[in-house]
Amino acid sequence: MTAVERRIPVMQPMLGEEEARAAAEAVLSGWVAQGPRVAEFERRFAAAVGAGHGVAVSSCTTGLHLALVLLGVGPGDEVVVPSFSFIATANAVRYCGATPIFADVELTTGNVTVETVDAVRTPRTRAVIAVHQGGVPFDVRALRAAADGWGVALVEDAACAAGSTAYGAPVGAGAAVAAWSFHPRKVITTGEGGMVTVDREEWAVRGRRLREHGMNVSAADRHASAQPVLEAYLETGFNYRMTDIQAAVGLVQLGRLAGLVAQRRDLAARYQALLADVPGAVPVRDPAYGRTNFQSFWVLLTDEFGAGRDEALSTLAAAGVSARRGIMAAHLEPAYAEAHPPALPVTERLTRNSLILPLHHNLTGDDQDRIVGVLRALSSRAPGR
Ligand SMILES: *Cc1c(COP(=O)(O)O)cnc(C)c1O
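The joint structure predicted for all components is written out below.
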């Protein structure tokens, strides 16, 4: 790496003066906990992703837990999840005392399919968590219909998928329940934060209660009332609240979503064109039925590439490029050593042979040339070339 070459991060949140001002306004308003800004963020986010109702929470992880509680998942139940996901997807099942059952994914999208879920389903299967992995939508039509047919609930892990579409609609449209993340690694951020979107109003009402200790009246509503309000605790809830400071930032970020996704898609198209002459480097693409927001731009290295994934990562790092290993596989982690899943060949191939390239609003065409140049040079060393 020469002195003039700047280090290229894998991801950078797009945060500006507007977010700083919005956060400052929330602080100076004197109401910093969950309040009116959270309520507005819930309305506007749900509308943006085509969902009926939003329930803001502290993270996608707590959102997934809340979703499973809403569905009544508990001890003795099995929940089918992809191993090929951030580990929180599987952990949320364990929080309920239920058992995650790992399904394999398809090579092109990194997502579970009707066939891979059906292969591991049992009479104890209570729910499926399907992930829109890295922003690539799963086949919502096929999986939603299959889950209905099986009589099994479908939770959508849309942590990465704000701004992705399937069959011409945002992925939140038509989802019974979906969980979203606003961690800085995702396309829009509130620092930490998440959202559960639901289609039924009664789930939104209960979800809001569950995230606030099971209280029948929110702290914000009690505060707004001139008369003393005696709250009741209707069931065992949690503190999964988002703050108004986070929601203030989220409202500004939401206004940037369409532009950020358009820019990511342009950069991804340019990566795809550049990689076309790098043998054995297969970039993620839109599936036939939808459009990804390219939250993660991953590249699968095949035998043709001529170098291993870890060698590619270290060569990129030496050139000042922060790439990342591909999406993890939960069943290969010590926390799931006892899980003994059936063979997950596609999951293992993807997780071992893919890497995630930098993609963010500050990435330039020159950066992309530099990054793909490193991969091209590595590939050209392959035997026979
Ligand atoms: C990031 C991520 C999560 C966790 O989101 P948090 O908001 O950090 O809790 C869950 N599932 C998937 C697929 C993710 O990528």
